[in-house]
Amino acid sequence: MRVYMQTPLEKDQTPRYYQLLVQEDLLEGWTLIREWGRQGAPGRIKRDHFATLEETLTACIKVRDTQLNKGYQVVFSKGQELHT
After folding, report:
1. How far is CA 80 from the centre of its chain?
2. Which of 3, 34, 45, 66 is the most buried (most CB within 10 A)?
């Protein structure tokens, strides 16, 4: 699953992005990968590991909602729908 968010376009400012990826790992767990930064520049990456898909999706929803409250907008979403 992938969720890509971006701040609204503003004059004289490069938009910021925040991307969430949920992936199954090789050890029967799940990983939430978060990447953020300015468009066109290398971003920061953080990986959080979870035992179950349910825990991973709960964490993903929490991060997504936090970023939406900071002004990000979902631009692209692929995979399972995230419900609150």
Report:
1. 13
2. 3
